[in-house]
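User: Can you predict the 3D structure for this chain?
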Amino acid sequence: MQQTRAANRGIGGLENSKLMNKIDGDGKARGALKKANRFNPYAAAQRAKARNDARVAQHKDNLNRATTRLADSDPDAVAKAATGGLRDSELRDAVKHQISQQADQLERAGASAASVLIGDRSEEEALQMVTSGKDTAGNDVSSEMRTAAAQKVAASRNVENINKMLEQLNRTSGQFSDSQRHAIIDTIESSGAGSIAPHLQSSNLGAVRDGSLQNVGELYGSAAQKGLYSPDAISGMHESGIDGLAAAHRNGYINGDQMQQVKKNYRFAASNAKFNQNLSNATKERMNML
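Assistant: Here is the predicted structure, written as structure tokens:
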């Protein structure tokens, strides 16, 4: 009731003790005052904050529980120990499958909680979590939080940051499960980043999915080799992707013939009315510098 009284200060000066005592002793009066509180901005703000705090606390609890359980037990080891006394191979497989499914559900629960908690972080904070494994306070973050942070970066369509994230993702591939790595790539694909950076097209991300990528330059090289830098694709490119294209050429991931083909396709795009209208001035400037 003390909190209710504090909230009621904005409603007609009802802080008078005699009036409050009278209201306290009447159930209908208390109910009416409670309804009136809905129109009190202070009380509404307090309720909203309480709901948000509870939501965040619940997600933190879900994440910590999932992270702890996954860290404390390897699903394969658990399955092996649990089925050691079973002679029926079909039954053993069924139990192992069930344990695997439970582990997947736990991982998804952790990922879901982490995605909510990462929501208020900036893209730069998220990138730092991916590249350093720590938050802005210097605390270690779980693989679930790093995955959620990577998905936030992936969804941004910021080509430069996605490139940084992909290189770090594969340097530390052992810290991410296959399903986590695939979730990050799925986010890149669904974001449409491939439409502004051909090296991020879905057909070119196989090396990221299987964890074999060593350098983002390899993605630029394979994109050039596959002919992904078509006039149409170049017309939609963001200028930051062109910087990476030039770097890949300098570092030998794209050979001279491949770069000449890219330039030829750009010249065609620039001279074609349909493609030229999609070319930004910044993209033209960078392409002319190749």
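The radius of gyration is 28 Å. Residues 123-191 form one domain.
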